[in-house]
Amino acid sequence: xxxxxxxxxxxxxxxxxxxxxxxxxxxxxxxxxxxxxxxxxxxxxxxxxxxxxxxxxxxxxxxxxxxxxxxxxxxxxxxxxxxxxxxxxxxxx
Length: 93
Fold this sequence. Notes:
By secondary structure, this protein is mainly alpha-helical. It is built from four helices and no strands.
């Protein structure tokens, strides 16, 4: 299933990315793609893609956390969202 896919993907793709990154001195995937294709536009585009997809993922997590706390604590959605956000900030700082 998904674990096997991840292992194979990281084993095959990860090794190639590692080799290319070491050769070019890239620290991030954006650096690697920008250097590989010789284009700042590629780096900016990939950065934008990462920003959008990560934002969508995080929004989904916050909605889920708010819904769980809303039902668990029998409070409003807004209060659940606030509590979830505060707990995330407290945990990550």
